Protein: GNAT family N-acetyltransferase
Amino acid sequence: MIVKECTIAEIQHLVEEYLQGLSSPFDSFLEDHILSSTFYLIQNDSLDVGYFAIHNNELLTQFYIRRSYQMHAQKLFLQALERHTVNFLFVPTCDELLISLAMDQDFAIKKQAYFFQDSQANASTTGLRDGEIFHLATTDDLQEIRQVCEDFLDDYDRWIARRELFVYYRDKVLLGIGVVGKSKMFDGLASIGMFTNNAYRNQGVGKTVIVQLREWCHRHGIIPISGCWYYNEASKRTLESGGMVTKTRLLNIEVTMRKTE
Structure:
């Protein structure tokens, strides 16, 4: 087998195979780590066998082997870890091959995040109250967004320009914002999220934002997904109250022992 560095464009056919084999999608957190990884193509003679991706020289974010070559998967997986001195793995539980390969080893497992999907059920309350508005943010909202949300996002101008940032007002008070980050890997999917004004937390603001974002996605033919840190119970409750459900986890696995063939 030959392993060589490549671009994601060069293995797009393999990436699409990988995505089609998942039992559920993953959100923008994992996607961003994958897309900023270094990719490696695995070949047998001139045939493409699979690929893997490593982020920041230590975190394996993807490992895919075509079914016809999966009898070699365990050996190729260990070789990838050893040759690139991988210290950690991001393993979504929707990836049966990778989670199985990780479970074969005596590695330390930590829970990183929840991944959510749309429940396809209507929330108990979805309407806005009198004096409340929810709409796409414009540059006119920038000053208020920066003041209320501070560094929740890295570049509010960019989110506004892409028409992926929403504002939720009661009269002139900014209650919160919502984001719809269109996926770069999954067609027709977008990660939704929200931030609530600190002065209005525990008042249903987050739920309203999530419900409104889901409805906006439905109207525009987009499938909403989401995620949150595993130990952020407040975010989990908000997403669930807004109509999102989770059956998928992201595991952060530490490579504590290597086996050699």
